[in-house]
Specification:
This protein has 372 residues and is of the alpha/beta class. It has helices spanning 15-21, 30-39, 69-74, 77-93, 113-117, 127-144, 162-171, 185-199, 209-215, 252-257, 290-300, 315-328, 344-361, and strands at residues 4-10, 43-53, 56-64, 98-101, 122-124, 153-157, 177-181, 204-206, 218-221, 240-243, 262-264, 267-270, 273-276, 287-289, 331-337, 340-342. The strands form three sheets. A six-stranded mixed β-sheet has the order 5-4-1-3-2-13. The chain has a six-stranded parallel β-sheet with strand order 8-7-6-9-10-11, sandwiched between helices. The radius of gyration is 21 Å and the shape is globular.
Length: 372
């Protein structure tokens, strides 16, 4: 029996990623490089083999789109979407029955809706499993940092957006101190009332990012802001931040200046089988981004239908993809931060530096995991 097939669209995040493959271009003027890569059509970058769950085997393809993240933000959305549609049609010609949108290709325009309307195969952004693994990763990271989720101050930045509101509804089932942060106070209050009805949890609402983040032990950052909102001085020692937003909500300066906080960007997913991506995207062998994994999960399930599209998400959708992931043997394998893997040694170092900083500041933290 022929195995199922999927494809996933990738692109260089920066021109530095292009130089890794085309070293000779490093000496070229950047305007020339930017103009050139806009002209390059989508390419079949590599074959993906060896994915195997108890319910079937899977193979797929990476389709490369030569636009950087910055170009996708600056170009008219219709220009970028035309290139993504071309990449999707190339995937269909290769035999893929579902295509996943990677990185900024999942963000531009209307988050995949127009792309899906222009393709004869199914499309997903992978956002549902991205949220599922981000929340699971946050819980695991908090535990490793000694934070008790039930006693911790948890904040959601961008709480009234599609991802933020669904994160709030899920976390309200698990935590006792939850703060919603967004610009639109009335929308936050409506969400807070809905959460109170559904879960019995009374949540706080605020539009003051700095004040709320400074109180938080755990921050889920999912705003749609164009600029970073969380700066080095905003975070308390030992805080865990899961930054799902693109562009990032957490300033890159946090990584440079704060070695006592843990910033993660969602989960690294272990893929079942002896998978070979035939492409190095900076992850350990046999692991992938959650958005890639969602595309694989749907293909293994033979769910050749549009799944995570547009700006609306539901708790049931995230619960469903999580259950399918478990069924097919996908699981969280680790963390990444600013596009790099986070090792257990790094977490221990962050935890120790946070402890020393708290001692120096005379802070008594009541949210530590009990040793009883």
């Amino acid at each position: 029996m022929e195995s199922a097939k999927f494809a996933f669209i990738i692109h260089p995040l920066t021109t530095e990623d292009i130089f890794k493959k085309y070293k000779f271009m490093r000496s070229w003027p950047e305007p020339l490089i930017n103009n050139l890569i806009r002209l390059i059509p989508p390419i079949h970058t590599s074959d993906i083999t060896g994915i195997s769950s108890p319910y079937g085997d899977l193979e797929g393809y990476f389709i490369g789109l030569f636009l950087t993240s910055q170009q996708m933000l600056e170009l008219p959305p219709e220009v970028t979407m035309k290139k993504i549609i071309k990449a999707g049609r190339k995937a269909a010609k290769l035999g893929a029955k579902i295509v996943g949108l990677g990185a900024m290709t999942a963000v531009v325009g209307d988050a995949g809706l127009t792309i899906a309307r222009n393709l004869d195969i199914a499309v997903t952004t992978g956002n549902s499993y991205t949220v599922a693994t981000a929340l699971e990763g946050t819980e695991k990271a908090a535990k490793l940092m000694g934070i008790d989720m039930e006693r911790a101050e948890v904040a959601i930045l961008g709480a009234t957006g599609s991802i933020g509101s669904v994160c709030a509804r899920i976390l309200a089932r698990k935590v006792n101190y939850l703060t919603l942060i967004a610009r639109n106070v009335s929308r936050m209050e409506n969400l807070a009332e809905s959460i109170l009805r559904d879960t019995g949890l009374a949540v706080k609402v605020t539009s003051n990012v700095e004040e709320a983040v400074k109180r938080a032990d755990i921050v889920i950052a999912v705003s749609s802001a164009a600029d970073s909102l969380i700066k080095p001085e905003d975070l308390k020692p030992g805080a865990v931040v899961c930054d799902v937003a693109r562009p990032r909500d957490v300033s890159v300066k946090v990584a440079e200046k704060r070695d006592d906080v843990l910033i993660i960007e969602g989960g690294v997913v272990e893929v079942p089988g002896d998978v070979n991506f035939n492409l190095n995207f900076g992850f350990p062998p046999k692991t992938s981004y959650a958005c890639m994994a969602e595309t694989m999960i749907l293909a293994l399930e033979k769910r050749y239908e549009n799944f995570s599209l547009g700006r609306d998400m539901t708790v049931s959708q995230i619960d469903e993809i999580n259950a399918l992931a478990v069924k097919h043997g996908f699981k969280l394998a680790g963390f990444r931060s600013f596009e790099r893997a986070v090792t257990p040694e790094m977490i221990e170092s962050i935890k120790e530096k946070a402890r020393l900083k708290k001692e120096k500041m005379g802070i008594i933290i009541p949210h530590m995991v009990s040793t009883r």
